[in-house]
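We emphasize that the prediction below concerns an isolated chain of 371 residues; any contacts that depend on oligomerization or on bound cofactors are therefore not represented. The input was used exactly as deposited, without trimming of termini.
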Amino acid sequence: MFENYKVPKELMPSDPRFGVGPSLIPVEYIENLAKTGTELLGTSHRKPAVKNLVKEVQEGIAKYFNIPEGYEVVLGNGGATFLFDMIGLGLVEKSSVHFVTGEFSSKWQKSHAKIPGVEAKLEDAGIGNGINPKIVDGHDMICATLNETSTGVIITELPDVRDKDALVAVDGTSGAGQVPLNLELCDVFFFSPQKIFASEGGFWVSIMSPKAIKRSEKIAQTDRYIPEIMSWKLAIDNSRKNQTYNTPSISTIFFLNEQVKAMNELGYDKVIELANKKAKLVYDWAQSKDYLEPYISDENFRSTSVATINVDEKYPVKDLLATLREQKAVYDIDSYRKLGKNQFRISLFHNVSYENLEKLTKIISQAIENC
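Result of the prediction step, given as a token string:
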């Protein structure tokens, strides 16, 4: 259907990467890494060059999120999905309750449910719907996903458990940095850096409250089996020394640091303002076309980092995206594979420019309206 469509030169984006992860790593960051020559890659992560880099990342993240007093920035290898098990093993005493809005929040609940001695209660909003977490009596951890990557659903508020025994844990992977969150109400805020923070996968960051750290110490003293690679004690102890427990990808940490520096130049509020502007562009466009509509019907739960847009079945998205990829114009805006929808899933991440998003909307409209 779209085989004859040719992207006009004036609409060609300056960067074709619109995917929601791995996300757009600026070429400048790669060039900056190359400039380090023999002083970083291939050196020990226990020595000053890498430790200083890790420290800069930790301090930069603390500054960007303006973390509350006593909170710590803990780092490790394995990615956010790895943390689903690590949190269940090392931070849940008896029971967690999970507010599920899609594939990844569902995976988190299933991970906890497999742990002997841990109950994982499911509060399912249904695919494409939003739900804010709330206090549920009898559970010592409340688990929520800031931005469900598979569907583009966000949460807008957290319960206040500061005077209770429960912890609030939030997976911020595809929302951290530009979907607002009150960290004072959160005990474990974790994310992988391959989304908004423009790095590679296989790494995690967790901002932890004193209450969460105390819980990890309590569970570590029990007879529960926890593999050393998933030990919160080892992760926290090493992070306090600006290290990771096992050898990290130094390039991943370098790219993360480059992005944290860039975002700190603007500041948290400005980054969120820009994200809102891009979200408005994409959702207004979708609502203006009779062959498109935002997948998330409730505007309150529409993501400002991942926009999911339904497309009339008459226009097969797969065919259009193949044509655009062949021309090196647009990459990776397919819907989440398990969702099976005829839709676009478009990154609104910080490094995706407003100008390129404008071009993307015009390309799609032109291709569909002239096919």
